[in-house]
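Here is one chain, start to finish.
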Amino acid sequence: MKGNLIKGLLLTCFLVGPVGATEYIYRDLMANTLPSAQCETASKAQEIAAKSYNIDRYSKRFCQSQGYGWHVEGVKEIGKTQCTECPDNKGLQKCHQEDVVVTCKRIKPGSVGMLPGKS
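Its structure:
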C-alpha cells in the first residue's frame, strides 16, 4: 500500500513538469523630490530632505508614475541635497533631493498565468 502511494507521488512529480519562474521587467529612473512645505534652518532642512522615509515615499511615487504594476525594487542613489532660501524669511531654507536613482520592476506580461485565447 505504501509502495503504491510512493510510486504514485513520484510519477506525479515527474509528469507535472517544471514550474515557470516569474519574469520581471526592470527600469531605472532618475527624478527629484519636492521641497519641504515649511521653511527650516539650513541643517534641519537638509536633514529632512535626506531622511530615508522621504526617499522611500518619493521612490514609490516615481515607480507608480510609470503605470499599473510598477513597484520599487530598490534605491540606487539618494542624490544630492539642494536648498533654496525662503523669500519671506531670510536665513531659513527649503531643501529637496536632486537626481534620485530608483530601480523599478514589473511582472513581464505573459510570464505568469494564462494568456487569453491560448490553451
